[in-house]
Amino acid sequence: MNLHFMKYRKLSYWISGALVALSILSLCFRGLNYGIDFSGGIAMEVKPVTAEYTIDKMRAALAEFKPELQVVDGGAVLVRVGLPKGSTDAQQNERVSQIKNILGDNVTYSQVQIVGPKIGGELIRGGILAVLVSFVLMSVYIWIRYRGGYAVGSFVSLVLDFILMFGFFSVTGLEFNQTAIAVILMGIGYSINDKVVNYDRIDENIQKYHKMPMNDLIDLSVNEMMRRTLMTSISTILAMVGLYAFGGLMLRDFAIAMTFSVVMGTATSIYISNVILYHFNLRETQY
């Protein structure tokens, strides 16, 4: 395999710029589709009285509320329903009564919780803090691990990864909740790991091929690591396909977002972090 990635370096900048612009515009005008974790809502843990009252029947009965249903331990079902923005305590209690009237005697109730706007706001702040702390820690790691062009390439691609992940949730309208925060951090961690592996191979080849032009050296390094990159990416994506097909509705958004993060991390490793190295004299870089 001998692909010429550096040949398309200028195109990669244009595509990346367009995606960043699309992400920022979508975040500004569409925003994020906050889930119950962040927007507030009702969470009930119920258990069907009979096996005939399945989760599908429960979902159909509550369709007007657009519920999220998930089977948990012991055959119980977690029912999550959103609340209108600015709901009062009386309106929240009324929504609970409506749900109970619809489900009737078909279920028994183990737990009923109302996540109000205040709690949702605290969770949003906690999620943002988690993302910011992870960004700072990854940036510190990059600065300690690398210097010069390596540090610049890693940092630029790290910023790009964060923007594109948030933009993806905004453009697609996938629910943004605590699971989404976990997907973003997992995906970017995967991306950083891929970049470190590629950079190590590039550095090894710099020490081995003293006179090879930088664009050829970067292409050689990426091609040498391509099999490893593809095997890792494909195996992760296949696992996500299994989750999407058999994991139920609650895991489909996770599988979709995680698949995007793997593809994004692989693409930014090849066409952003590596391409940026072309603009630096790495043979004089010490780290």
Low-confidence stretches: none
What is the fold named in CATH at topology level of the largest domain?
Answer: Multidrug efflux transporter AcrB transmembrane fold
* CATH homologous superfamily descriptor of the largest domain: Multidrug efflux transporter AcrB transmembrane domain
| Number of continuous helical runs | 9
- CATH architectural type of the largest domain: Up-down Bundle
Largest sheet: 4 strands, antiparallel
Strand content: 5-15%
Radius of gyration using CA atoms only: 24 Å
| Rough outline | elongated
C-alpha termini separation: 30 Å
User: What is the helix fraction of residues, given as a range?
Assistant: 55-70%
The order of strands across the largest sheet is: 3-4-2-5
CATH class of the largest domain: Mainly Alpha
* Order of SSEs: HEHEHEEHEHHEHHH
Structural class: alpha+beta
In short:
This protein has 287 residues and is an alpha+beta fold. The chain has helices at 9-29, 36-39, 55-61, 89-103, 117-145, 148-172, 178-208, 214-246, 249-276, and strands at residues 33-34, 41-48, 68-71, 77-82, 107-115, 175-176.
Give a structural overview.
This protein is of the alpha+beta class. The protein has 2 domains: 6-34 and 120-284, Multidrug efflux transporter AcrB transmembrane domain (Multidrug efflux transporter AcrB transmembrane fold, Up-down Bundle); 41-115, 2-Layer Sandwich (Alpha-Beta Plaits). It has helices at residues 9-29, 36-39, 55-61, 89-103, 117-145, 148-172, 178-208, 214-246, 249-276, and strands at 33-34, 41-48, 68-71, 77-82, 107-115, 175-176. It contains 9 helices and 6 strands. Helix 5 (117-145) packs antiparallel against helix 6 (148-172) and helix 7 runs antiparallel to helix 8. The strands form 2 sheets. The chain has a 4-stranded antiparallel beta sheet. It has a two-stranded parallel sheet with strand order 1-6.
